[in-house]
Amino acid sequence: MTCRHAARKNGRKPLPKAGSDLASETTRIDLNLLLVFDMVMIERHVTRASIRLGLTQSAVSNALNRLRALFDDMLFVKAARGVEPTQRALVLWPEIHAALTQLQRSVRPGLFDPATSTIDFRISMVDLSAALLTPNLYRCIHEDAPGVSLSFVPHNPELTAERLVRGEVDFAISIEPPRMTVLEAIPLWSEGYVIAARKGHPMLDHPLSIDELCSLPQLHINLSGSPSSVSPVDAALQELGKSRPIKLVVNQFLVATTMLRESDLLAVLPMRLVADGFRQNWITFQPLPIALPEAALHLVWHKRNNGLQAMAWLKRKILDATTMLNADIKARIGG
């Protein structure tokens, strides 16, 4: 009795013949199934994946069932807001996603045409960046690509790298520079911090001393909401053995400017956020009494997108919009 016959008799799957069964497994893989797997990994939601693929939800569900049988794994489990990948899916996805991307480059080189494209780009950025950059960015894009759309994703600094790696967003605009070697970044702008308050605030009719800064009630912006997050100004004050009285913590820049206008709170903010309110004469500012590194904003993306014409085109449009914004900000503050 051969080993293969013995294995069948004992109920075990026989070992594959060298090369033959491996080739058989490869031919069982339907490229359309991998496209479904890739999109569900990106969206983490079956309905949203079906919409982006142009398929019915039942077709996507059937494809997932075939994938589960193919890989002998659940791949996705239901979660509160969609689905979560299993460990097996997380291991499979990077190479599958890279292979699909390379295949698209090979069979459709130079296919991206802004005038006819209907691609939906996704960018992660904070509300301040979106409010400042969107008017110029939309104009830059819509002039050349009327069918292209933009979707902004709420920005969480702690999740930025993971979202870029998983392909959930195409670009991120972040104060935090990338720490992963698979990510690249270029600076968009940098600027200093100021202490700001409503127009006519009695304490901002003169430059503040450090003691005054540490005695006046203030508003603080914590984008991630993490209790361990420490702002640059608080870190600098801690080195001096000092602290400031924080009376309100918000997670959005635009909420901060609204609260400044409606209260006597002060806030340490990037000059770019203050410029529009200063131009409209409802906010005032003074220089900080303590030296801080400038706040730098970076455009971040995954290296796998470097060969994609669509991504290179969007990057140029973001840089063009940034140039326009920088000129506008300089005009607003008279600098």
What features would you describe in this structure?
With 335 residues, the protein is of the alpha/beta class. It has three domains: 3-107, Orthogonal Bundle (Arc Repressor Mutant, subunit A), CATH 1.10.10; 120-180 and 309-332, Periplasmic binding protein-like II (D-Maltodextrin-Binding Protein, domain 2); 193-293, D-Maltodextrin-Binding Protein, domain 2, CATH 3.40.190. The chain has 13 helices and twelve strands. Strands 4-3-5-12-6 form a five-stranded mixed sheet. Helix 3 (31-43) crosses helix 6 (87-107). The model is unreliable at 1-23 (pLDDT under 50). It comes from Novosphingobium umbonatum. GO terms for molecular function: DNA binding; DNA-binding transcription factor activity.
Structural class: alpha/beta
- Spatial order of strands in the largest sheet: 4-3-5-12-6
Q: Indicate how many domains the architecture comprises.
A: 3
For the sheet with most strands, the description reads: 5 strands, mixed
- Name given to the CATH homologous superfamily of the largest domain: Winged helix-like DNA-binding domain superfamily/Winged helix DNA-binding domain
Low-confidence stretches: 1-23
Count of distinct strands: 12
Radius of gyration: 26 Å
CATH topology of the largest domain: Arc Repressor Mutant, subunit A
CATH C-level category of the largest domain = Mainly Alpha
Total helices: the number is: 13
Determine the strand fraction and express it as a percent band. 15-25%
Calculate the mean pLDDT score and round it: 84
The end-to-end distance, rounded to whole angstroms, is: 89 Å
Question: Helicity, in percent?
Answer: 40-55%
**Shape descriptor:** elongated
